[in-house]
Design brief:
Its main location: cytoplasm. The protein has 264 residues and is α/β, with parallel strands linked by helices. It is 33% helix and 18% strand. Helix 3 runs parallel beside helix 4.
Length: 264
């Protein structure tokens, strides 16, 4: 069975993930920047989520209406800043502290990544695995920048990483299907290869044909912003709005997985 992970960045996304019974949710902030570490309050809210909301007008299939017992497992993205993946000692220390806080708050796993001179930052990963103290560790799409991904798989297995998020190439999954197939074969079930990066419902059949055991998507939409004040250098103006989870797209992804026979 192919599992589905929904990447979310706010309370609405947490609610959608629980009501649609995603297999996991990846929690972050600032998805338009690739995601950074969310606040402790948001982590606590995601962990505490238990029951479906009655506020949505989306009609769900019967199989998708039941919230998972205890809520959807929360995997927290721990990334100290936007930009590249080579971190200073101070940023590494912050990452390790944030991993400990996330796990202490009830996260089932953390999502991290770090490079050093084009290779996996094994010292960072080793410290994160230790700090996670048994919680699952996913290595994110920094993996797609490795010159030798097969060697990277072996190294991450040795370090105790549970899952690798990858598009199979440095761009998007639509371009990385042959690479994903190659990675699945190389992993041989020893580490989970999770396809992510531009996943759409239309791509699901092609992704499943690669043999990936997991799919990751953010199912984003833009909500118009009624404010007239823009804050920050990345702001694009008051008419740009903000990104949040689109429940209908998330549902279409789940339906596509179910139609392909990968989900109950």
């Amino acid at each position: 069975m192919t599992t589905f992970e929904l990447a979310v960045q706010d309370e609405h996304g947490i609610d959608v993930a629980n009501r649609l019974a995603a297999d996991r949710l990846e929690l972050c902030s600032a998805l338009p920047l690739g995601g950074v570490t969310p606040s402790l309050g948001l982590i606590e809210a995601a962990v505490a989520a238990r029951s479906p909301s009655s506020s949505s007008d989306v009609r769900l299939p019967d199989a998708a209406t039941a919230t998972r017992p205890g809520g959807v497992p929360v995997h927290v993205l721990v990334r100290p800043r936007p930009g590249g993946f080579e971190y200073t000692p101070a940023e590494v220390a912050t990452t390790v502290r944030d991993v400990r806080h996330a796990v202490a708050a009830g996260a089932a796993g953390v999502v991290i990544g770090g490079l050093r001179d084009g290779h996996i930052d094994s010292a960072l990963v080793d410290r994160v695995v230790a700090a996670a103290d048994g919680a699952e560790v996913t290595f994110h799409r920094a993996f797609d920048l490795l010159a030798d991904p097969i060697r990277g798989i072996e190294e991450l297995i040795g370090l105790g990483v549970r899952r690798i998020l990858t598009a199979g190439c440095p761009t998007v999954v639509a371009d990385g299907l042959p690479g994903l197939r190659h990675l699945v074969t190389a992993a041989s079930g020893r580490v989970e290869i999770q396809a992510g990066g531009g996943v759409s419902p239309a791509l699901i059949p092609a992704l499943l044909a690669t043999g990936v055991p997991a799919v990751h998507a953010s199912a984003k939409t833009v909500v118009p912003d009624s404010g007239t004040l823009t804050l920050g250098s990345a702001a694009t103006g008051p008419d740009a709005g903000r990104e949040t989870t689109d429940e209908r797209t998330a549902l279409r992804l789940i339906e596509a997985l179910r139609t392909a026979g990968s989900r109950p």
